[in-house]
Design brief:
With 261 residues, this protein is of the alpha+beta class. The protein contains five helices and five strands; from the N terminus they run H-H-H-H-E-E-H-E-E-E.
Length: 261
């Protein structure tokens, strides 16, 4: 025969902390952290764009002069007379800064700091001998005396040709051999020694007929050389060579014969 046994089961009271509460805690603080993060991000963005706008405005804004406040109560009375404008600045042409002339070599110790360079061909005709200040407006230098009407003679220095240089001429230099023979003084030593022969003297005859240079080109005996040179020296004027209708400087060989009678 069975008996009914009543067993009492004690059910614990529900706890105040569990999975449900933990889920609610996580949800609440997750939302709060998200909102704080979004807020801080928006704040940083606003600060960044605000600083950018301020820098752009500072660069674009023009710098203004400081404002000075003045009082107009103590100003002097205005004059009705018109103030004449200042006269226009007059520019004086001083000509090229370079100086005209022929360069001459000098020691370095004589070169001063204010010595001007020589003028080039394009400004030579307008430059002065001392040079201008460099205000060149195309005219003559201010220190050129244009009232001086003295005639300037330009001497043309003819270049001497070499003794063996070929010069094409219409007429060779001429010499009167009879006159030249009369001017010969026979050397006493050569006369006593019975020396005879011919001496050829090379002579540079200028356009004026004068013998510029001369030397013995060939000789049969040395005792006759000086007498031949003296004869050329004492001859006088030769006939100059002619080229294109004008007398020129030219070399000529003149033979001089020595004969005993």
């Amino acid at each position: 025969m069975s008996e009914n046994v009543n067993i009492a089961v004690i059910v614990p009271e529900p706890s105040g902390y569990g999975a449900a509460e933990l889920k609610e805690f996580i949800r609440r603080y997750t939302i709060r952290g998200f909102l704080i993060t979004v807020g801080l991000t928006l704040l940083f963005l606003l600060l960044y764009f605000g600083i950018q706008k301020a820098q752009e405005s500072a660069k674009a804004a023009p710098k203004l002069a400081p404002i000075v406040k003045i009082s107009i109560t103590d100003l002097p009375p205005q004059s009705d007379a018109e103030v004449a404008p200042p006269p226009p600045q007059q520019i004086i042409n001083t000509g090229p800064a370079a100086r005209a002339g022929t360069p001459v070599p000098v020691p370095d110790a004589q070169i001063t700091a204010d010595m001007k360079d020589f003028a080039t061909i394009d400004v030579m005709s307008r430059a002065s001998s001392v040079g201008g200040d460099g205000v060149d407006l195309g005219g003559f230098s201010a220190n050129i005396d244009l009232s001086d009407k003295r005639e300037v003679k330009i001497e043309k220095k003819e270049e001497e040709p070499a003794p063996d240089e070929f010069i094409a001429v219409e007429k060779e230099p001429g010499v009167d051999l009879a006159k030249l023979q009369k001017s010969i003084v026979y050397p006493d030593l050569a006369r006593r020694a019975g020396v005879e022969g011919r001496v050829v003297v090379r002579v540079l005859v200028g356009p004026d007929g004068k013998a510029r240079k001369y030397f013995v080109e060939s000789s049969d005996h040395e005792l006759l050389n000086q007498a031949a040179l003296d004869a050329i020296k004492n001859y006088g004027l030769f006939t100059p060579a002619i080229q294109n209708g004008q007398a020129i400087m030219c070399w000529v060989s003149i033979p001089i014969t020595f004969r005993l009678r």
